[in-house]
Structure to design on (66 residues):
């Protein structure tokens, strides 16, 4: 098993799968300051550091069903 690259960039589709956000929900959360900002990769491309997204996921409260 290999170690994950902490600086790996992930694209919008993968971020949405990991977080459960839709595209518009993700950008709204970024605008509110509730989600890490993406990095501009080109004129029409944005990526997020996987480590930042996973750290954000870890910081979220966990709710367990009854």
């Amino acid at each position: 098993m290999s170690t994950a690259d902490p600086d790996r960039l992930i694209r919008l589709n993968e971020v949405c799968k990991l977080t459960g956000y839709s595209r518009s929900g993700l950008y709204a959360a970024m605008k509110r300051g509730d989600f890490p900002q993406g990095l501009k990769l080109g004129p029409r491309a944005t990526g997020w550091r996987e480590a930042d997204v996973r750290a954000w996921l870890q910081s979220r409260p966990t709710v367990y069903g009854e």
Q: What stands out?
A: The CA atoms of residues 28 and 34 lie 9 Å apart. Residues 9-59 form one domain.
